[in-house]
Design brief:
Elements lengths: L1 E5 L4 E5 L8 E6 L4 E2 L8 E6 L10 E8 L4 E2 L3 E3 L5 E4 L3 E2 L3 E9 L3 E4 L3 E4 L5 E6 L16 E5 L12 E3 L17 E3 L5
Parallel strand pairs: 4-13
Antiparallel strand pairs: 1-2, 3-5, 5-9, 6-8, 6-11, 7-10, 11-12, 11-13, 14-15, 16-17
Length: about 190
């Protein structure tokens, strides 16, 4: 049983039952690289042990992103089974980039996973990363040229995409180009 002992000054977490204390917390199956929004497979597993190296059952272990951005979706707190293993079968992250996870037992132990990479999903939209100048003079290039990115459904740039992007206007006037400023361009690295 995991409980809390409180006084007016502090709260301490402790284990009650057969007297075994948590001594080890380790990733058995590290998180693997995956595509944004897809369940991380194989399932991440964490082992909780006592000082003799035996697995401890009934211990809640919580995972969180410790390095990198984004939100870890899925059931992030699992309780160890009879072998001392906590299994996380529904985790996913939508933000692309290099990540690490932290496993924690409240007030007792933490451990950090190896690094893994979340890559962008399939191209789904075009996002404007740099807006063009708010004002312009007819016939003169914008002071700030627009920059667009081909993105997945989560807003991650799809760095491998090379689709053509064609500019158009929504108000009166004509979109024109110069040799250095094409109206149709091919994406390079998603931009």
């Amino acid at each position: 049983w995991l409980g809390n002992l409180s006084s007016s000054a502090t709260t301490a977490t402790f284990n009650v039952g057969n007297g075994e204390q948590v001594s080890g917390l380790a990733f058995v199956q590290e998180p693997s690289s995956e595509v944004a929004g897809i369940t991380i497979a194989p399932s991440v597993t964490v082992l909780v042990t006592n000082s003799a190296g035996a697995g401890l059952s009934g211990i809640p272990v919580t995972l969180a992103i410790s390095s990198g951005t984004g939100v870890l979706a899925g059931t992030v707190t699992q309780t160890t089974d009879n072998s001392g293993i906590a299994t996380y079968g529904d985790l996913s992250i939508t933000a692309a980039g290099t990540k690490q996870l932290n496993a924690a037992i409240s007030g007792l132990a933490t451990n950090t996973s190896s690094s893994f990479v979340i890559t962008a999903a399939a191209p789904a939209q075009i996002g404007i990363t740099t807006q063009p100048s708010a004002t312009a003079v007819a016939g003169v290039n914008f002071a700030a040229q627009p920059v667009v990115a081909i993105e997945d459904q989560y807003g991650n740039p799809v760095l491998t995409d090379t689709d053509a992007i064609i500019a158009s206007q929504t108000a009166g006037g004509t979109v024109s180009q110069t040799s250095a400023n094409a109206v149709q361009v091919t994406a390079v690295g998603g931009y």
